[in-house]
Amino acid sequence: MMGNRQGEKLAGGMVLLSLLMGQVAAADPSYDTYGT
Length: 36
Description:
By secondary structure, the chain is an all-alpha fold. It has one helix spanning 2-27.
């Protein structure tokens, strides 16, 4: 089903985004607001 595949893509994107944000936060102390 197309909807299911799209949902998986969205979930994967969210995971990648959170990982990227985590790396940015770890690399940049000014990102303290994102999650200590």
